[in-house]
Amino acid sequence: MWKNLLVLFCWAAFCLAACKGNRDKQEEVREAILKQQPFAPLTDSLDRQKGKDRSGLYFRRAELLSQNDQHELATEDYGKAWNLRPDPTTGVRYASSLTITGQAGKAIRLLEDCRKRFPEDPAFAAMLADLFAQSGRFSDAIRVYDDILSTDSLNPDALYERGLLLEKNGDTASAIRSLKKAFGLQHLNTYGLELAHLYAEQGDESALPICDDILRKDSARDMLDPFFIKGIYYSNTAQYKKAIVQFDSCVGRDWKFPDAYLEKGIALFKQKQYGKALESFQMTVKVSETYADGYFWIGRCYEATGRDQQALAYYRQALALDKTFSEAAERIKRLQ
Fold it and tell me: Is residue 27 part of a domain?
């Protein structure tokens, strides 16, 4: 027993010494960087200003460190500046730096604190909602925009971002209402196309006039999304010939648009035109060799025409490109 305890004690002592050695090494590296140009003058000033308010110096050094991709050290300095003098600008920079260095939880707590300290500054709410969304916390992000809209119900940006989040959270009806209000307040193409896309996915013909209006204003004649969205609407309402016209319009403007070839191929496939569908799917992987959906649908064409071994090869290629492609895995299992 005593022998085991002695071994454990020695191992613990070794680990502590190793940890201390690592910390000392990290501190040496940190000090060496801060004494190099262009950080050295600010580091010297900070050393001379001990006992005085050094928040401005920490902030300036943090900015310089960030510009030179020294984000870990920049985060430390932003934190010191914030603790000495919390103000909106420092709060924004500190939260951004925390996010860059993978400290999302700490960034969220900081932003929630900033919202209480500076309720009149909209930047913190937007950053907090974005961080919640990046973390998959869509309901929390929606709550932030609900707070914004409770005091500014006609804020189109908040309505638009809320709509996107509602869609991701699976509430399509509420997403459409939010996007419709945003688009009504401000006729931006971004708002209109997102709204039209949701309509199209629901098989709602309201998508069409929005897309047509945007196309009429497209003087450069380079927009693809309105044609694509109209194609999605026609496909979802089984108007496949009209859908193909729209997808052809897309590739007429950009022949390297794989999604248009894919959707055109699916429309042809549903009409049992397997030869033409195969040609369209083959174009998807010609313009994008890593396009997993293209390989999958080539496999579907081969399977539909009784060429199971060729289908298997393409399903395997799709799964190799996208390990989460469950439908490809299921078809491989069935054919094997």
Answer: no
Q: Does residue 72 form part of some domain? A: yes
Q: Give how many domains the chain has, as a whole number.
A: 1
Instruction: Please state, in angstroms and rounded to a whole number, the distance separating the CA atoms of residues 82 and 158.
Output: 28
Q: Which residues contact 302 (CB under 8 A, 6 or more apart)?
A: 278, 308, 310, 311, 314
Quick check: is 20 in a domain? Answer: no
To the nearest 10°, report the CA torsion of 234, 239, 240, 241.
Answer: -110
Whether the ω angle into residue 226 lies within 30 degrees of 0, i.e. cis, is: no
Phi, psi dihedrals of residue 107, rounded to the nearest 5°: -65, -40
Angle separating helix axes 258-270 and 292-304, nearest 10 degrees = 20
Average pLDDT taken over every residue of the chain:
93
CA distances from 100 to 31, 70, 130, 231, 244 (A): 22, 11, 13, 39, 43
Quick: pLDDT tens for 144-179. 999 999 999 999 999 999 999 999 999 999 999 999
Per the confidence metrics, is the pTM higher than 0.90?
Answer: no
At residue 13's C-alpha, the angle toward residues 12 and 19, to 5°, is 90
* Domain boundaries, position 55: 32-135
* Widest distance between CA atoms in the chain: 86
Cα dihedral angle (219, 223, 225, 230), rounded to 10 degrees? 50
Residue carrying structure tokens 């289908």: 311
Condensed to tens digits (0 to 9), the pLDDT of residues 11-62 reads 555 555 444 556 677 888 899 999 999 999 999 999 998 878 899 999 999 9
CB 186 within 8 A of CB 156: yes
Structure tokens at 313: 């090869």
Residue 274 resides in a domain:
no
**pLDDT the model gives residue 160:** 98
